[in-house]
């Protein structure tokens, strides 16, 4: 019972007009890009606009540029240039990105100071010196690697 | 069509004679099962739209519907169609729509920047005759 009622609601749903439909004769058609809207922008015309509309019935060559623009603005809210204009949203996006990266940086620095313990003693320079000497004594990678770079005669790194 | 009945005696070899190839049957030759619907040529398409806008007593709704449909197609209309539409605007005393049509076709051209100047060049006599300014003349292509 409930399922059939739900199904009847689905059936009444209007087909979305933004689906790309076949416009007959094999030409693809889009339904929601309308350069000429149904209703003009200004519905209540002032006296000046009404007289301009009267003038429009005559030769258009006699209209000045301002009058032509005024006529356009009566019918349409935005020109194509205004309609297609991008927003400045991308600036907010980049700013947000930098902000959060910065916050993360602060968190990392705080962690290093207050969360992590000391590094192992094997990182001390004294230990490291002994470690290098031991590796050279063992002839680690004597052909092309580590010990190959050590000059055993002169007891220094090869230039 | 050779008739391979030499070794078959009196049997009629109907498969060799048959010309029609119903879809679904695999064929060794390069033949495709296309739809048999008639495809409208470009000239027919253009002529149809020119006729639509040329209606002497076209009304405002028909102009809007026609333009919106035409702009919805995946193409930039030919100058002759636009000429017909601009004259329809003149009959309806609607300069705003005439300018809008020019804006719309420029927008339709997308990245192909050479289409719009060509259209304006072709429509120049009509624009002068009817006194239609292009959006560029009015500075409406800038913000």
Automatic annotation (TrEMBL), chain A:
GO cellular component: mitochondrial inner membrane; respiratory chain complex IV
Any Pfam family the entry gives: COX4
Signal peptide: none
Coiled coil: none
Keyword Glycoprotein tagged: no
Keyword tags: Membrane, Mitochondrion, Mitochondrion inner membrane, Transmembrane, Transmembrane helix
Keyword set includes Disulfide bond: no
Topology class, membrane: Single-pass membrane protein
Transmembrane domains' residue ranges: 92-110
Main location: mitochondrion
Pathways involved: Energy metabolism; oxidative phosphorylation
GO-annotated biological processes: mitochondrial electron transport, cytochrome c to oxygen
SUPFAM superfamilies: Mitochondrial cytochrome c oxidase subunit IV
Top-level taxon of origin: Eukaryota
Cellular localization per UniProt: Mitochondrion inner membrane
Function recorded in the entry: Component of the cytochrome c oxidase, the last enzyme in the mitochondrial electron transport chain which drives oxidative phosphorylation.
Complex and partners: Component of the cytochrome c oxidase (complex IV, CIV), a multisubunit enzyme composed of 14 subunits. The complex is composed of a catalytic core of 3 subunits MT-CO1, MT-CO2 and MT-CO3, encoded in the mitochondrial DNA, and 11 supernumerary subunits COX4I, COX5A, COX5B, COX6A, COX6B, COX6C, COX7A, COX7B, COX7C, COX8 and NDUFA4, which are encoded in the nuclear genome.
Family matches, as PANTHER family: CYTOCHROME C OXIDASE SUBUNIT 4 ISOFORM 1, MITOCHONDRIAL, CYTOCHROME C OXIDASE SUBUNIT IV
UniProt family annotation: Belongs to the cytochrome c oxidase IV family.
Protein name: Cytochrome c oxidase subunit 4
Taxonomic source organism: Hucho hucho (huchen)
From TrEMBL, chain B:
Record function comment: Component of the cytochrome c oxidase, the last enzyme in the mitochondrial electron transport chain which drives oxidative phosphorylation. The respiratory chain contains 3 multisubunit complexes succinate dehydrogenase (complex II, CII), ubiquinol-cytochrome c oxidoreductase (cytochrome b-c1 complex, complex III, CIII) and cytochrome c oxidase (complex IV, CIV), that cooperate to transfer electrons derived from NADH and succinate to molecular oxygen, creating an electrochemical gradient over the inner membrane that drives transmembrane transport and the ATP synthase.
Recorded GO MF terms: metal ion binding
Organism: Hucho hucho
Entry's Gene Ontology BP terms: mitochondrial electron transport, cytochrome c to oxygen
Pathway info: Energy metabolism; oxidative phosphorylation
Protein name: Cytochrome c oxidase subunit 5A, mitochondrial
Keyword set includes Mitochondrion: yes
Signal peptide: none
Main location: mitochondrion
Keywords noted in UniProt: Acetylation, Heme, Iron, Membrane, Metal-binding, Mitochondrion, Mitochondrion inner membrane, Phosphoprotein, Transit peptide, Ubl conjugation
Gene Ontology CC terms: mitochondrial inner membrane; respiratory chain complex IV
Ranges of biased composition (kind: Polar residues): 12-25
Record-linked Gene3D superfamilies: Cytochrome c oxidase, subunit Va/VI
Subunit note: Component of the cytochrome c oxidase (complex IV, CIV), a multisubunit enzyme composed of a catalytic core of 3 subunits and several supernumerary subunits. The complex exists as a monomer or a dimer and forms supercomplexes (SCs) in the inner mitochondrial membrane with ubiquinol-cytochrome c oxidoreductase (cytochrome b-c1 complex, complex III, CIII).
SUPFAM superfamilies: Cytochrome c oxidase subunit E
Domain of life: Eukaryota
Subcellular localization(s) per the UniProt record: Mitochondrion inner membrane
PANTHER family registered for this protein in UniProt: CYTOCHROME C OXIDASE POLYPEPTIDE, CYTOCHROME C OXIDASE SUBUNIT 5A, MITOCHONDRIAL
Region of interest (Disordered), residue spans: 1-25
InterPro entries in the record: Cyt_c_oxidase_su5A/6, Cyt_c_oxidase_su5A/6_sf
One Pfam entry name: COX5A
Membrane topology per record: Peripheral membrane protein
Transmembrane segments: none
Family the entry assigns: Belongs to the cytochrome c oxidase subunit 5A family.
């Amino acid at each position: 019972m409930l399922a059939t009622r739900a199904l009847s609601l689905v059936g009444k749903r209007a087909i979305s007009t933004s689906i790309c439909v076949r416009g007959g004769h094999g030409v693809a058609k889009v339904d929601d890009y309308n350069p000429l809207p149904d209703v003009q922008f200004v519905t209540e015309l002032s006296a000046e606009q009404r007289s301009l509309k009267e003038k429009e019935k005559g030769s258009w060559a006699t209209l000045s540029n301002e009058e032509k623009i005024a006529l356009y603005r009566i019918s349409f809210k935005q020109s194509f240039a205004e309609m297609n204009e991008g927003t400045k949203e991308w600036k907010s996006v980049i700013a947000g990105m930098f902000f959060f990266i910065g916050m993360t940086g602060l968190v990392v620095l705080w962690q290093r100071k207050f969360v992590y313990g000391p590094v192992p003693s094997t990182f001390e320079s004294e230990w490291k010196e002994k470690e290098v000497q031991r590796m050279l004594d063992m002839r680690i990678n004597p052909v092309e690697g580590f010990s190959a770079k050590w000059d055993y005669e002169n007891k220094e790194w090869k230039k | 069509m050779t008739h391979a009945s030499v070794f078959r005696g009196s049997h009629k070899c109907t498969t060799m004679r048959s010309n029609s190839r119903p879809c679904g049957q695999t064929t060794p030759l390069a033949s495709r099962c296309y739809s048999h619907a008639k495809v409208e040529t470009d000239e027919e398409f253009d002529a149809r739209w020119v006729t639509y806008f040329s209606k002497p007593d076209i009304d405002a709704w028909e102009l809007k519907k026609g333009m919106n449909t035409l702009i919805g197609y995946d193409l930039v209309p030919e100058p002759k169609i636009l000429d017909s539409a601009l004259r329809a605007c003149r009959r309806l005393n609607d300069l705003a729509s005439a300018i809008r049509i020019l804006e719309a076709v420029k927008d339709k051209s997308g990245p192909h920047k050479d289409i719009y100047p060509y259209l304006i060049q072709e429509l120049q006599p009509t624009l002068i005759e009817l006194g239609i300014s292009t959006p560029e003349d009015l500075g409406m292509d800038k913000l």
